[in-house]
Amino acid sequence: MINRNNIMETIGMVEKHKFDIRTITMGISLFDCSHENGEIARQKIYDKITKKAEKLVRTVEDVEREYGIPIINKRISVTPISLIAGASLDINYVEFARILDKAAETVGVDFLGGFSALVQKGFTKGDEILINSIPEALASTKKVCASVNVATSRAGINMEAVRLMGEIIKNTAYLTRDKDSLGCAKLVVFANSVDDNPFMAGAYHGIGEYETSLSVGVSGPGVVKAALEDIKGEPFDVVSETIKKTAFKITRAGEVLVREVSRRLNVPFNIMDLSLAPTPEIGDSVARILEEMGLERCGTHGTTAALALLNDAVKKGGIMASSHVGGLSGAFIPVSEDEGMMEAVRTGAITLDKLEAMTCVCSVGLDMVAVPGKTTASTISAIIADECAIGVINHKTTAVRIVPVYGKDVGEEAFFGGLLGRAPIMAVNKFSSEAFINRGGRIPAPVHSYKN
User: Are residues 171 and 282 in the same domain?
Assistant: First the structure.
């Protein structure tokens, strides 16, 4: 039963603690758009997206107004384009990215994900073409996001793909150098990517998904922090229980909204992604939650343990609130999108190595990390390889969204704007990994992955 206290509590969550639904993402299958003539395929893609998502933004905005809970982003994810464009005779897929961008603009969504390839074992012709098209595609579009999965726990790590992605990231940084290498903020390299992720830049509509569906990414770091402020000094059992109860409330509110949007659009509700997603605004930070547990500054000793508790409690509370949990579901720690993380980097409390340690216990990985523009492609590839190893060994999704900011160095900041925020440039290890990366081949899957 919904009573007055429930209503007032929800209002307080929105007004005081910046609670929002971070995104409602429509997934659209494009398998029926394949054609050997690229121009025909692109027209079919445009027609299908604009038809399926024609009423998405308007419907979400109507529900947002009626329920009084902000829904920040409206997004689309599509079938990995390498699988669709691979049927064509095209030798460059930039025009596919541009037609996706045009479709996103037409229907009014904020981002469109799925300029993607899955290469955890090897490359098809379409995969190679798509990956090599990424720098120009991201430089010539506004709303398109790209992702490449280079490893899984069952396949191991495709080190040829890891090496190539270091070069692709560097090229993307150069082509978008006039915007602090912003193109790299729309590119994610994954291990164990998931088919139903509603968050950008890594969203795509996987092979086993619906023809069309709706997924939601909830948020609410400020709500969790406020709940912990009321239990200062209490033991961690109480901390965990408090976070669980708060995550339950956040998840229930999100599911009410997405089910209403689903009903109005007559599109199946797919999953709830429970991830706590911060923003650059003060009071909406995952780092500040960790500090509320007793850390003087996020990044000091104890941070990994605090993050592990937070991630686990969020999942436990959310799973009790919804039968359709999926996506990434945890706690994001993007540097540029979290004001507490930015401050921790500026004060020296967090280094790249500490961030890597933290990614062992949360989703997703090294996210929105800005490094010097002079960072070599092999160093970037080695950073990706380290994150992939964490994901493959621990059977979890890990990722790298790293921005080598062209023309900037440690001590400076990159400015991305909006939810992408701003990021202090972080130092990387000065020693070379080039000979390691140039070995190529494939790092085999761990022995404990062979379960059947």
Answer: no
